[in-house]
């Protein structure tokens, strides 16, 4: 019987996640400003959701990925009611390190772009270590 690799995550994996902006997603609501437009923390959360979705079906049971580094440029304001689309593409795999290129658009127009780095970990061990650190 052939042993499975630690993970079957390869460059080129992609995912897309959508969000219709509500009052709860605004900079004012999330505490990152006082304007009623899509807040940067929500833009980042959406981009990260796309990175998680890109690998979700390709990692071994019991494994997960955790974010370790983000580089994000928020380029345009998005008002309540608009739908934004986050796309992630796995650009590079270096051992357990996964580097994604991410973009967020509104009607095809750029809202944000950047890179997200995640690390493949054993979910149970990670949670246990985090609990001990508290």
UniProtKB/TrEMBL annotation:
Domain Fluoroacetyl-CoA-specific thioesterase-like residue range list: 21-123
UniProt binding sites for substrate: 67, 118
A Pfam family hit: FlK
Domain of life: Bacteria
Binding site for CoA: 67
Catalytic residues, chain numbering: 40, 48, 74
Entry-linked Gene3D superfamilies: Hotdog Thioesterase
InterPro entries, sorted: FlK, FlK-like_dom, HotDog_dom_sf
Name of the protein in its database record: Thioesterase superfamily
Organism: Micromonospora echinaurantiaca
